[in-house]
Design goal:
The chain has a domain of about 140 residues: Nucleoside Triphosphate Pyrophosphohydrolase (Alpha-Beta Complex), CATH 3.90.79.10. About 25% of the residues lie in helices and about 40% in strands. Strand 10 and strand 11 form a beta hairpin.
C-alpha cells in the first residue's frame, strides 16, 4: 500500500457513521419504560400546541445540542428531564436502539430507558412543550398490530414560492444529466404505522419506532 492511500485511510473513523449527516437535523428520543403494578408500560407525550408538530403523540426528546451534549445519550436524558421535570438519577438508559433516517431531512437516534415509578409519580410537565403524558402497557403493542397506510415521496428539482412561482434549484439540463431529472423523479412509497389507543393516535416517526421495536422484540 502506497503512502497516499495510507494517509487517506488513517483519516477514516474506525466506526462507520452516516454519510451526509451534517445535512440532517439531528435529534434524539428516549423510549421510556415505567414499571406500574409489576407490568411495564411505555410513556408517551402529547406535544403542546404552538410548537413543531404540536398536538401529536411522541416520545420525550429533541435536537442534539453540541454546546451542551457530549453525545446523543446525553441529549435523550437532558430533553427528558426538561420536558418532564425529572433529574438525572430518575432515568436509566439501558440500550441504544436503531437510528431513523427520515426522507424530509431528519436523523433520529433512539434510546431505550427506564423511569422509576417514584419519578413517574412526581413528573412535573413543562407545559411549554408538553400538554400531558400517558402510558400504555407494553403487552398492548405486543398483542395488537397497527393499521398500515402509505405516503409517497418524490425528489423535486425546483421549489415553489408563496406566489406559486417555480425556481429551479437543480439545473439538470445545464449540468448535462439525463433530462428526466428536470422533472420530479422517484416514486418511493413509505409505510405509515398507526396505533389507536384509548382515544390517542400514535403514528408518524413515533409509530415507526414503536413498530420496529415490537417487531424486533417479538
Amino acid at each position: 500500500m502506497k503512502k497516499e492511500l495510507k494517509q487517506l485511510l488513517v483519516k477514516i473513523p474506525n466506526k462507520p457513521g452516516f454519510l451526509g449527516s451534517r445535512n440532517y437535523f439531528l435529534s434524539v428520543v428516549l423510549i421510556p419504560f415505567v414499571l406500574i403494578e409489576n407490568e411495564y408500560h411505555i410513556l408517551f407525550e402529547k406535544r403542546a400546541n404552538g410548537i413543531r408538530q404540536g398536538g401529536e403523540i411522541s416520545f420525550p426528546g429533541g435536537g442534539f445540542d453540541d454546546e451542551h451534549d457530549r453525545n446523543f445519550q446525553q441529549t435523550a436524558i437532558r430533553e427528558t428531564c426538561e420536558e418532564l421535570g425529572l433529574e438525572l438519577k430518575d432515568i436509566a438508559i439501558h440500550k441504544q436502539f436503531d437510528t431513523v433516517v427520515v426522507p424530509h431531512g431528519n436523523m433520529i437516534y433512539t434510546y431505550l430507558g427506564e423511569i422509576s415509578f417514584d419519578a413517574f409519580e412526581r413528573i412535573e410537565i413543562n407545559h411549554k412543550e408538553v400538554e400531558y403524558v400517558f402510558t400504555v402497557p407494553l403487552k398492548h403493542f405486543q398483542n395488537n398490530k397497527p393499521e398500515i397506510y402509505h405516503s409517497r415521496s418524490q425528489m423535486f428539482p425546483f421549489k415553489t414560492d408563496e406566489n406559486g412561482n417555480e425556481k429551479i434549484i437543480f439545473p439538470a439540463i445545464e449540468l448535462g444529466v439525463p433530462p428526466k431529472y428536470s422533472k420530479p423523479w422517484g416514486n418511493k412509497i413509505y409505510p405509515i404505522y398507526v396505533y389507536r389507543v384509548n382515544g390517542e393516535v400514535i403514528w408518524g416517526i413515533t409509530g415507526q419506532i414503536l413498530f420496529e421495536l415490537i417487531n424486533v422484540t417479538n
